[in-house]
Amino acid sequence: MSLALVVEFLNTRRKNMARFLNTNIRKFVSFQIRMSSDQLGELGKGAGKGGGGGGTVREAGGAFGKKQAAEEEMYFKRKEQEQLAALRRHHQEEIDHHKKEIERLQQEIGRHESKIKKLKHDD
Q1: Which residues contact 24 (CB under 8 A, 6 or more apart)?
Q2: CA spacing 20 to 30 A to 20: which of 10, 28, 95, 101?
Q3: How far, in Å, are 19, 24, 32 from residue 84 at the CA level?
């Protein structure tokens, strides 16, 4: 396998990963915009006051409604951080895998080149 094929393979993988990231980033940004929209009002203010219905506690409003809304926000923020950490780990694993693959392929190339040199020397 030539070095050009290895480079082509890695470029294809890079393009596929970029396409994957672009769609996920787009979803993430639209989610953030939706969550920070001013049309929601203050979460936990109760039904009909801009907070919307989110269960009986949130519909009642007051301190408990605000507390529940804050807990929900923290939950989703934690989930988002976990997902980002998992994505970072995944990318690092991919990078490590590709580095090992490049090493292996370079060894293969060296082995084939030495065979070619040996064949030329035997002529």
Answers
A1: 87
A2: 101
A3: 17, 11, 14
Tens digits of residue pLDDT in 39-95: 455 555 655 545 555 566 566 667 887 888 889 999 999 999 999 999 999 999 999
pLDDT digits (tens, 9 = 90+) for 83-99: 999 999 999 999 999 99
The pTM of this model reads 0.47
Residue 68 contacts residue 58 (beta carbons within 8 Å): yes
Return the axis-axis angle of helices 3-35 and 62-122, rounded to nearest 10°: 170
Specify burial of residue 65 (Cβ count, 10 A radius: 0-12, 13-18, 19+): buried
Q: Are 59 and 53 in contact (CB under 8 A)?
A: yes
